[in-house]
Specification:
Helices cover about 75% and strands about 5% of the residues. It is mainly alpha-helical. It has a single domain, classed as Rhopdopsin 7-helix transmembrane proteins, CATH 1.20.1070.10. A three-stranded mixed beta sheet has the order 2-1-3. The longest helix is centred in the middle third of the chain and has 34 residues. It is globular.
Length: about 325
């Protein structure tokens, strides 16, 4: 087991400071985050169910969207419940095992979301640039393989980083100036030299972000070139509308990540980092849902049909 350690780190505890510097805002923040989490859970699970129950949504695009909803649900559930708990209790401690497991899960689903967005970009590339071959190219076998990739990369990255966290030593109580066990803050309170762990984390983050963005940017360059060559304005508008939701999601997710981790640390206050972390761990899983549901005519039509069927059945 990864959580079995030979040194004293297994007995170490971590205190998640969260937003404790704002005692008067604990209850309002709890209510806000509880509302966001409720919408995220019900909405993403509802999206998965709608896609499963609606035959007209049994296409590769919505197959990938159902997995994005699943990843968002898991990602939010990994972080938000502990955040809500720490807003209403005075004891904000978390065990070494609990902290490591929270990081492992958060890393897995963050990495999976990064590459799931790249997979969805490839899907839009095939749909726009090769529409006649789309049903043949995006076969069930290929779709299953493309979905397996992000989860596999997430598991490999998480296991690798978790293994190197296990190699560090932690002494007694450790105060983490964040609301969840993020890699850099765990490493920062280590008693041992964190250099190798920091370099490894940076390397994995750069490779993941760059490779994902290269795939996304390359596919959208081809999409843009193809759309501009379309003879009819209605065709161009339809092509752009199918990509608009995905582009919005990519911009929000990667924009937040790049702002947090590419801007030099001295420009970011502790509060700015926390707010940015809240945005990409708590808010974005809800925003993705709203973007794909409110802007998507097929989803709204499927919801109407399912509601009509339910009314008729009752």
């Amino acid at each position: 087991m990864l959580l079995t350690k030979g040194n004293q780190s297994a007995g170490a505890t971590f205190t998640l400071l969260g937003f404790s510097e704002f005692p008067d805002l604990q209850v309002p923040l709890f209510l806000v985050f509880l509302t966001i989490y409720t919408v995220t859970v019900l909405g993403n699970l509802g999206m998965i169910m709608i896609i499963k129950l609606s035959p007209q949504l049994h296409t590769p695009m919505y197959f990938f969207l159902s997995h994005l909803s699943f990843v968002d649900f898991c990602y939010s559930t990994t972080v938000t419940p502990k955040l809500l708990e720490n807003l209403v209790v005075e004891d904000r401690t978390i065990s070494f095992a609990g902290c490591i497991m929270q990081f492992f899960s958060a890393c897995l689903f963050a990495e999976a979301e990064t590459f799931m967005l790249a997979v969805m970009a490839y899907d839009r590339f095939v749909a726009v640039c090769n529409p006649l071959l789309y049903p043949v190219v995006m076969s069930q076998k290929l779709c299953a393989s493309l979905v397996t990739g992000p989860y596999t990369l997430g598991i490999v990255s998480s296991l690798t980083l978790t293994y190197f966290l296990q190699a560090l030593s932690f002494c007694g109580s450790n105060f983490i100036n964040n609301f969840f066990c993020e890699y850099s803050v765990i490493v920062s309170v280590s008693c041992s030299d964190p250099y190798l762990s920091q370099v490894l984390c940076l390397a994995i983050a750069i490779v993941s972000e760059v490779s994902s963005l290269v795939i996304i940017l390359t596919t959208y360059v081809f999409i843009f070139v193809t759309v501009t060559k379309m003879p009819f304005a209605s065709g161009r508008q339809k092509a752009f509308s199918t990509c608009a939701s995905h582009l919005t999601t990519i911009t929000i997710f990667h924009g937040t990540i790049l702002f947090l981790y590419c801007v030099p640390n001295f420009k970011n206050s502790g509060l700015t980092v926390k707010v940015g972390s809240v945005f990409y761990t708590v808010v974005i899983p809800m925003l993705n849902l709203l973007i794909y549901s409110l802007r998507n005519r097929d989803v709204k039509e499927s919801v109407r049909k399912l509601m009509n069927h339910s009314v008729q059945f009752c």
